[in-house]
Amino acid sequence: MFDGTACLLQDRPGSRNRMTDLTILGLETSCDETAAAVVRRTADGRVEVLSSIIASQIAQHAPYGGVVPEIAARAHVESIDAIAAEAMRTAGVDYGDLSGVAATAGPGLVGGVMVGLAFGKAVALARGLPLVAVNHLEGHAVSARLGADVPYPFLLLLVSGGHCQLLDVGGVGACVRLGSTIDDAAGEAFDKIAKSLGLPYPGGPALERLAVGGDPDRYPLPRALLGRKDCAFSFSGLKTAAARIAEGLTAEADRRDLAASVQAAIGRQLRERSERAMEIYAQAHPGEARRFVVAGGVAANKALRATLEEAAARRGFSFDAPPLAYCTDNAAMIALAGAERLALGISDPLDAAARPRWPLDAAAAAADPTHLAGRKGAKA
Ligand code: KG4
Ligand code: ZN
After folding, report:
1. What CATH number did the domain enclosing 122 receive?
2. Cβ-based burial of 97 (10 A; exposed 0-12, middle 13-18, buried ≥19)
3. 315 and 353: one domain?
4. Which ligand is closest in space to the CA of residue 161?
């Protein structure tokens, strides 16, 4: 059981038959939200979120303009007990009703990841439950399924504070990366440009609010990687140009126009690369359903959702995005990712390690290390 490899559910003490309904406690502590949730997944794949509790640390990090790892880890330690208890109470379930525990094991700030993972291991050990050490990105990848029935396979645009990538998602643990950022993540660009506009952390939602009513064509901003045939992203040129313009602006109307121009420029790039990925995906999956999913914190942006939905329609793809509450970090997506693994008989040993770096497509990441996770971002 402690051999360091994933183990099959039926081999574990306290295991449940894989064809039954699963009730999973999910734990998320990889960045600045301490979150716990209880999710039920029926044997036929229906999903019900029984509770989803999120304690945000925004107020603690705001004075520093970004996430401070030590403050985050300490805050997770202080609140994980109460947040998990609240998730169980709200769901109306007892630890004896659980089929398993799923905890984020990376990628993320390792001090925080260790807190949630250790808590999950303790529950698993005390209650004889299987543990699933979940990749946070796999949580985002399944998050649209918390709101709608989105069958595999699908094309995924994962846009968060630490990651910006296009993935061909074939099923549980079967992701092929089609492209990712060569510098910053989209959320990171939002956060940094927002900062240069004097907006509070986290910048994405603040910039979206400022952009309302602004002129998206007012400020011409650089278009990255024009002419490239791959699905790579780059936001650093845009970030530098926008910061330079922001320096000279004081009038509210000008700031609004810059926010709208930035949002449109980020949307344009996400759209262009997603459309290219749709072409590649359609060729790789002839005759199969064409589904496009966008997930991650940036997917909460309504203007971007609209742009991407339009792009999907133009290319004959269906469009899904998680309900707004499940775009940014939450534990319901971690519980669901855990449930999907348990349903296939996959769980992890109790000595599963916390992993600060953990690409979804390890082969692609190793083959092309110039494509970063955007790991310098506030949320990385
Ligand atoms: O998925 P997430 O909560 O955390 C990570 O796993 O990184 O994503 C957080 C990122 C932040 O960069 C935040 O500014 C961005 O998502 N974000 C948004 C919006 N809401 C959150 N960006 C643009 N518009 C939004 N409404
Ligand atoms: Zn995330």
Report:
1. 3.30.420.40
2. middle
3. no
4. 1
Place of tokens 């991407």: 308
Provide the pLDDT for residue 370. Answer: 74
At 365 the pLDDT is 83
Q: Which domain holds residue 243?
A: 154-321
Whether residue 374 has its Cβ less than 6 Å from ligand 1: no
Ligand 1 centroid – CA 190 distance (Å): 8
Question: If you measure from the C-alpha of residue 378 to the centroid of ligand 1, how many angstroms do you get, rounded to a whole number?
Answer: 10
The verdict on 158 and 296 lying in the same domain is yes
pLDDT at 376: 46
Is the separation of the CB atoms in 335 and 321 below 8 Å?
no
Domain-located, residue 380: no
pLDDT tens track for 185-214: 999 999 999 999 999 988 999 999 999 999
Question: How many whole angstroms from its chain centre is CA 252?
Answer: 32
Ranges of the chain whose pLDDT falls below 50: 1-17, 376-378, 380
Asked if residue 160 has its Cβ within 6 Å of ligand 1, the reply is: yes
Q: Which of ligand 1's atoms lies nearest the C-alpha of 203? A: 14
Question: What pLDDT, on a 0 to 100 scale, did the predictor assign at position 6?
Answer: 37
pLDDT value for 120:
98
- The number of folded domains in the chain is 2
Contact 152, 123 (CB under 8 A): no
CA nearest neighbour of 111 among 325, 354, 372? 354
CA–centroid distance, 218 to ligand 2, in Å, is 32
303 lies in a domain?
yes
**Probe target for ligand 1 pocket from 140, 298, 375, with the most ligand atoms within 8 Å of CB:** 298
One domain, residues 334 and 193: no
CA of 297 to the centre of ligand 1 (A): 3
The domain boundary, picked from 321, 336, 355, lies at 321
Q: What is the per-residue pLDDT for 143?
A: 98
Answer yes or no: is the C-beta of 191 below 6 A from any ligand 1 atom: yes
For residue 186, the ligand 1 atom closest to its alpha carbon is: 12
Q: What is the DSSP letter of 99?
A: S
Q: According to the model, what pLDDT value does residue 62 have? A: 87
What's the pTM value of the predicted model, to 2 decimals? 0.93
